[in-house]
Specification:
Number of strands: 8
Radius of gyration: 17 Å
Largest sheet: 8 strands, parallel
CATH superfamily: Alanine racemase
Shape: globular
CATH architecture: Alpha-Beta Barrel
Bound molecules: pyridoxal-5'-phosphate
Number of helices: 9
Strand content: 15-25%
Helix content: 25-40%
Order of helices and strands: HEHEHEHEHEHEHEHEH
Number of domains: 1
Strand order of the largest sheet: 7-6-5-4-3-2-1-8
Amino acid sequence: MQVQEALRQVQERIGAACARAGMDGGICRKRAPEEVTLIAVSKTKPIPLLMEAYQAGIRDFGENKVQEIMWKYEEMPKDVRWHLIGHLQTNKVKYIVDKVAMIHSLDSLHLAEALEKECAKANRVMPVLVQVNIAGEETKFGIRPEETEELIRRAAGFPHIQIRGLMTVAPYVETPQENREVFSKLYKLFLDIKGKNIDNIIMNVLSMGMSGDYEVAIEEGATMVRIGTGIFGMRDYR
Ligand SMILES: *Cc1c(COP(=O)(O)O)cnc(C)c1O
């Protein structure tokens, strides 16, 4: 399937999921499709495919490797907003602070310190999401839910970091409904922290949902979905 047709279908499904939000007893309200940002996850994919998405109007692209953002940044138009969605090592922060629009994977104070230092040097304020390991999977990055508020309070003190919300990578499941509870837990944590009105943070982004489960994530409050396979097809890691 072509990228453009795949995108059209994804966008249609996002619209339908926005309208369903809050039905079935969920706590999230209905939303307009414009309130949900579609991030096209382009890792491993070649520039011509990214350009197909770009030509169809996509400006938000997600990558999980610093190296890959670095070279794709050079090849793609400059109005692309790059989202770093993978684990970030402190020693690589310096390569991307001038290239990415948002970092979804803040998961330690150590990384926050490195970000603060490099963003100060680059003279910019970086929008950042805290990655939470809601399901407690050992193989996943992200901090524990109960440590999230503390990390946010500490990071809020850094002038070059702007905390904007939370992110999670849900478990791999057979049916998307199995992740509903993971998403609603993150939404509740998000509301809880937002309600505390911590200085210098703006809690308005909830990044959750991938190709297999983004509709459920939207029903449970996602404002950003990260979709790779559903737009570009399967990845080949050979
Ligand atoms: C690869 C990746 C995605 C996209 O996964 P798909 O299942 O291909 O949609 C989303 N989020 C993160 C963090 C990823 O690494």
